[in-house]
Design brief:
The protein has about 475 residues and is of the alpha/beta class. It is about 40% helix and about 20% strand. It contains 15 helices and 20 strands. Helix 12 links the parallel strand 14 and strand 15. The longest helix is centred in the N-terminal third of the chain and has 20 residues.
């Protein structure tokens, strides 16, 4: 298939350059063509969103919710088709991708129900015969920039709360997820989403993303991507005095204490580190292990990794698939070379495919480096995790906090005091006991501290705070 823009209720094929999309599981297979847009297309989309805003914002919350229910139904009817396309486009194993599409369906229904929830509070006035209350009102036109690693769930967890709050949207997906974005938008358009309420613009970040953030007539921007780009987005939005939200990098830690139940810890660490080929901002990439159980844990992880095959994304038996692109493959391989030069390889996972035919990186556990080494400090975004021995819980928490990031962290212990201390002292937005660092539920706030996030949260009720603004109203009803 080919990508295309959806602007003001019309399908438009832009006239800029093209990119042939290959299947990362088999680079000999062409999946489709992405046609890139120009900054002028962004302006057109923003104008369409602005024109559609009064009518959409003027609907009742219940009416907007009914539209979101229809979008959920359309996605559910085509769930397997969307999952197959996304797996073929960016390499996430089909079992995970089906789960992600299901999450998108649940998100749409969750926010659809928000259409009939209270949107303000009555506040007592110091004056007599005055009714004073607050209302949550739309921001206006929202620019949404989404990554390739969750091509369905992340766009929906931004778009759904934006729409239910009465905003209209200009969506710029990642280049490596543009075919999936086009198909999802086709389904939404066919389900009856009014013209101009959601506008899709396919393009490169340096062109379309920059125009959306710096030039387009938008009232807010929600961005998920790298910390470097997120900082640029934040600076540009601040200079325009428009609201912004940036979800950026992570270098997430799992702490394993001597009393941990390894039957719980091992599968959780393997899943956190290697599902989606480690291409999650919440992926486990640092593992701090109390010395007395270090060798035991290494043996258990190595045994578990033997049962986590790397394979074609459409093979239901694949525990992890390829990384998403040639650029991602080259980046991760540069860190694999650092392991070969500076560290000690502890375990490598098996494969079920010829790795020469795709962007496959074998899952890897390493040790033998200090806490300040790039393998421990830099976000790799691949199936590579580093283990470091620690003396006790104090050292583990200190090293967990020794990072510029603060997204997610886990501890594995049966000691309640240590677990509660971890929840209190670790500098991360999402902290978990005896659970993997990834896998936060859609009804709970998502976001981090430090350079992982700006100062708002996604998902759950928290998302509604970002996509709306508060208006304080007062009425004197005396005679």
């Amino acid at each position: 298939m080919n990508s295309k823009n959806w602007i003001g209720g019309e399908w438009i094929v832009p006239k800029a350059d093209e990119l042939t999309v290959v299947n990362p599981s088999n680079t000999q297979e062409h999946v489709g063509t992405v046609v890139f847009s120009a900054p002028a297309d962004v302006q057109q989309a923003a104008e369409a969103a602005r024109q559609a805003l009064p009518r959409w914002a003027g609907l009742t919350g219940a009416a907007r919710g009914e539209v979101l229910y229809k979008l959920a139904q359309a996605l559910e009817q085509h769930a397997d088709e969307v999952a197959q396309l996304a797996s073929t486009e960016m390499g996430k194993p089909i079992s995970e991708m089906r789960g992600e599409v299901t999450r998108g369906i649940h998100l749409l229904r969750y926010y659809a129900a928000e259409g009939v929830r209270a949107v303000g509070d009555v506040i007592p006035s110091t004056a007599g015969q005055v009714l004073q209350y607050t209302r949550r009102v739309p921001l206006g036109v929202v620019g949404i920039i989404t990554p390739w690693n969750f091509p369905v769930a992340i766009p929906i967890w931004k778009i759904a709360p934006a729409l239910i709050c009465g905003n209209t949207v200009v969506w710029k997906p990642a280049e490596t997820a543009s075919l999936t974005a086009t198909r999802v938008t086709e389904l939404f358009a066919a389900a009856g989403l009014p013209a101009g309420v959601l506008n899709l613009v396919i393009g490169r970040g340096q062109d379309v993303g920059r125009a959306l953030v710096e030039e387009a007539d938008v009232d807010a921007v929600s961005f998920t991507g790298s910390t470097q780009t997120g900082r640029q987005v934040a600076a540009a939005c601040a200079s325009r005095n428009i609201k912004y939200q940036t979800e950026m990098g992570g270098k997430n830690a799992a702490i394993v204490l001597a009393d941990a139940n390894l039957d719980v810890a091992v599968p959780a660490i393997l899943s956190g580190a290697f599902r989606s080929a480690g291409q999650k901002c919440t992926a486990t990439s640092r593992i701090f292990v109390e010395m007395t159980v270090f060798d035991t844990l290494v043996q258990a992880l190595a045994k578990g990794l033997e049962q986590a095959p790397l394979g074609h994304a459409l093979d239901a038996k694949s525990y992890l698939g390829p990384v998403a692109s040639k650029a991602q493959y080259d980046k991760v391989q540069s860190y694999v070379k650092q392991v070969e030069a500076d560290a000690q390889t502890l375990a490598v996972g098996p494969t079920t495919v010829d790795v020469a035919n795709g962007y496959y990186v074998r899952p890897l556990l390493a040790t033998g480096v200090e806490a300040n080494h790039p393998l421990v400090q830099e976000e790799i975004f691949g199936p590579l995790a580093t283990l470091l021995p620690v003396a006790d819980v104090e050292e583990a928490i200190a090293l967990c906090n020794q990072t510029m990031y603060g997204l997610s962290a886990s501890i594995f212990t049966q000691n309640l005091a240590y677990g509660l201390r971890f929840l209190d002292e670790v500098e991360a937005g999402m902290v978990r006991i005896n659970l993997e660092t990834a896998g936060v539920e859609y009804q709970a706030p998502f976001g981090g501290m430090k350079w992982s996030s700006s100062h708002t949260r996604e998902q759950g009720q928290a998302a509604l705070d970002f996509y709306s603004q508060v208006k304080t109203c007062a009425v004197y009803y005396g005679r």
